């Protein structure tokens, strides 16, 4: 076999130097070849690396290298070195999203097209890396296109803002009263019966609405829906015990909505009626307090994603049943809700001591402060009619305030509670609405469904809806993939369609979850510096990427899902098992086809034999699991570091000859096991990610001996021999 590269220096070096200044005599010394050079001479007998691939036995196999595209395009020594030793290349960064897409969304494929042209001229293939990834994305552009939308408003326009609403059609009387008359709720109205005239109008008085957040020195409109048995007038007071503004309102024998305008003296007010001079009975359906404010763009943001209880997330619902709790609430079977749907089911016990011995809680992942506005609705019923109370809690069971969303009365028929209001100072810090259900005195069963909790946001911009964000990003993904396919002109026929999707934690059907900033399967740092497409397009975003790649790519396109730590020993290859689960799930639609699996294998050789043995066993198991999938299998990013007996990373300059040879043997082991276990029809290639050792300041394994050649001199290392022997199947 002919060998034409890496010829070592001549065998002898002659050094000339003066040994004496007295006689100016010159001595000649013969210097032996350094042992470090001599022990590598056997590598001169090796051919170029790709010569060791058995093309007949593995016809689909390609030997690849990770390359720095800018250096390759220099068409110098690096270009010739790659061409001589490899069949294919993978661009380190040049074909990634952030290298092409600018902050304004424009795409510059200039370097990509040059790379394709150079590869085509050299007869080398390109393995595309990567179409969809969370890292190296243009965050400025992607976050901008899903940012809040600017809204136009009329600066002179005003609107009515509801500060408080007391609805006796669904609530009981809970206000203060004074004098001989006790108001009560009957048939959905508050009833006040004064059989005789009192000496003073304030001798009959009561709070018809309480704890209303108001704005000092701002005029508020108080509206009362009222009627009476006789026509007359009564006094309305607005304020608190430190001072009120008073006026009179008329009562007629027909239902009327009577409004008065009064300035607020306090930030928390009541509405008090005083009717000692009125003789007869009057009824009130509701009381509303509002004020006019400049129009603000406002919207309601939902906080509960499983309102109808048909999904799997029940993390919002808790219950205490007969003093046991709070615990996750019981979700009933289909039919417990409305029209065959599901409901939360809460059981109360006999002879309760306190109203809160049985409670239902709705908790949301947001804490509300004084002035925040919320909207809360649900549908409810019970087996036996019963009263209830609502409270503000800071967690289920963490009582804050006795009043929250009214006092709904349960019947055996479904009713709807609809509460809109502003959080006051006493309720500040709340994130939970509690229903006190032990008011009946006997056992009962309560049902809740269609539970919605929203909070009001306002400003000059409005967030896009999840559907709008998904639509926008789907368009951006289509633009990116179609642009890349057009730029590569069908020459790049193999791609990492999705890179590093799995989190290595979480639980989905017993397997690892996908990486997600929303579901918390990534660190806070990763969430801030990455863009997780699946958080907006859903876990089936891979199907979308595959669809676009096949739509715009060549007919013979091969698509791989690529990930790292598939050889993991610490979880018995569970990450690979999880990846296989997700591929099966993505392909279950009968349309999505993923051709292959890429395993990165950024490994390290451990000089501790026991540590290395367990790793070897799981490399073998990885190949066995991959072979069983029937998919094309490619080692996409193979390189190797070194760990000494004490568990320390060894730097390039510190590697001993013994350690070099151990790394060489490990390369041989990995490659031989690949060819031994992966059937020939599935063998798609091995790419060495960094052919030369990593420079000291590199961001990728800086200063580590990961190459098959030395960093600057391109001299073959022992690992070159092990890698070549593995390709050749040498024992």
UniProtKB/TrEMBL annotation:
EC number per UniProt: 3.2.1.8
Similarity-based family: Belongs to the glycosyl hydrolase 10 (cellulase F) family.
Keywords, sorted A to Z: Carbohydrate metabolism, Glycosidase, Hydrolase, Polysaccharide degradation, Signal, Xylan degradation
GO molecular function, one term: endo-1,4-beta-xylanase activity
Catalytic activity field: Endohydrolysis of (1->4)-beta-D-xylosidic linkages in xylans
Keyword Methyltransferase applies: no
UniProt keyword annotation of Cell membrane present: no
Designated name of the protein: Beta-xylanase
Pfam families for the chain: Glyco_hydro_10 (PF00331)
Residue stretches making up the GH10 domain: 55-726
PANTHER family recorded: BETA-XYLANASE, GLYCOSYL HYDROLASE
Signal peptide stretch: 1-22
């Amino acid at each position: 076999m002919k060998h034409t590269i890496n010829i070592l220096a001549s065998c002898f070096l002659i050094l000339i130097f003066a040994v004496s200044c007295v006689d100016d005599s010159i001595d000649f010394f013969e210097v032996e070849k350094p042992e470090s050079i001599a022990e590598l001479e056997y590598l001169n007998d090796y051919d170029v690396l790709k010569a060791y691939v058995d093309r007949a036995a593995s016809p689909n196999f390609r030997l690849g290298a990770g390359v720095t595209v800018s250096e390759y395009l220099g068409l110098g020594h690096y270009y010739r070195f790659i061409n001589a030793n490899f069949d294919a290349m993978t661009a380190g960064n040049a074909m990634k999203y952030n290298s092409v897409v600018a902050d304004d969304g424009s795409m510059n494929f200039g370097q990509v097209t040059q790379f394709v042209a150079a590869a085509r001229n050299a007869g080398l293939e390109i393995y595309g890396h990567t179409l969809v990834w969370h890292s190296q994305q243009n965050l400025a552009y992607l976050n901008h296109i899903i940012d809040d939308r600017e809204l136009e408003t009329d600066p002179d326009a005003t609107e009515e803002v509801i500060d408080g609403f007391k609805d006796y059609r669904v609530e009981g009387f809970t206000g203060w009263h004074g004098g001989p008359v006790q108001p009560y709720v009957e048939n959905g109205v508050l009833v006040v019966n004064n059989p005789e005239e009192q000496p003073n109008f304030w001798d009959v008085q009561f709070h018809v609405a309480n704890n209303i957040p108001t704005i000092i020195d701002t005029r508020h409109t108080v509206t009362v829906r009222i009627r009476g048995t006789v026509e007359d007038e009564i006094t309305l007071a607005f304020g608190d015990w430190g001072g009120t503004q008073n006026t009179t309102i008329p009562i007629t024998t027909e239902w009327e909505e009577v409004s008065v305008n009064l300035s607020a003296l306090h930030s928390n007010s009541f509405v008090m009626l005083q009717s000692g001079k009125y003789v007869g009975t009057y009824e009130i359906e509701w009381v509303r307090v509002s004020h006019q404010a400049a129009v603000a763009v406002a919207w309601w943001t939902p906080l509960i994603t499983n309102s109808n209880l048909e999904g799997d997330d029940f993390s919002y619902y808790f219950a205490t049943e007969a003093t046991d709790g709070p615990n996750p609430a019981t979700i009933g079977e289909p039919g417990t809700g409305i029209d065959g749907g599901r409901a939360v089911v809460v059981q109360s016990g006999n002879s309760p001591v306190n109203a809160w011995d049985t409670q239902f809680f709705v908790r949301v992942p947001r804490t509300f402060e004084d002035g925040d506005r919320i909207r809360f609705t649900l549908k409810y019923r019970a087996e036996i009619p019963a009263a209830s109370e609502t409270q503000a809690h800071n967690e289920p069971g963490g009582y804050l305030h006795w009043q929250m969303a009214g006092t709904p009365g349960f019947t055996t028929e479904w009713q709807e509670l609809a509460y809109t209001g502003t959080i006051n100072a006493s309720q500040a810090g709340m994130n939970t609405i509690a229903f006190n259900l032990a008011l009946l005195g006997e056992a009962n069963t309560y049902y809740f469904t269609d539970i919605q909790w929203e909070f009001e946001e306002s400003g000059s911009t409005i967030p896009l809806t999840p559907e709008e964000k998904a639509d926008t990003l789907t368009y951006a993904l289509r633009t990116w993939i179609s642009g890349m396919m057009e730029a590569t002109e069908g020459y790049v026929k193999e791609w990492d369609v999705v890179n590093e999707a799995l989190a290595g934690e979480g639980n989905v059907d017993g397997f690892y979850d996908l990486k997600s900033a929303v579901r918390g399967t990534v660190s806070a740092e990763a969430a801030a510096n990455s863009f997780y497409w699946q958080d907006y397009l859903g876990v089936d975003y891979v199907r979308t990427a595959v669809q676009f790649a096949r739509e715009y790519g060549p007919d013979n396109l091969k698509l791989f899902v690529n990930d790292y730590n598939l050889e993991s020993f610490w979880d018995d290859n569970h990450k690979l098992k999880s990846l296989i689960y997700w591929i099966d799930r993505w392909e279950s639609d009968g349309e999505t086809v993923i051709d292959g699996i890429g395993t990165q294998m950024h490994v390290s050789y451990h000089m501790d034999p026991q540590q290395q043995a367990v790793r070897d066993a799981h490399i073998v198991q990885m190949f066995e699991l991959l072979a069983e999938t029937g998919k094309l299998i490619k080692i996409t990013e193979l390189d190797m570091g070194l760990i000494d007996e004490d568990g320390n990373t060894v730097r390039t300059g510190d590697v001993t000859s013994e350690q070099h040879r151990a790394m060489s043997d490990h390369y041989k082991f990995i490659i031989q096991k690949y060819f031994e276990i992966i059937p020939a029809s599935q063998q798609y290639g091995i790419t060495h990610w960094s052919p030369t050792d990593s420079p000291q300041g590199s961001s990728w394994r800086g200063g580590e001996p990961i190459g098959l050649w030395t960093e600057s001199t391109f001299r073959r290392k022992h690992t070159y021999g092990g890698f070549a022997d593995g390709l050749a199947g040498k024992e």
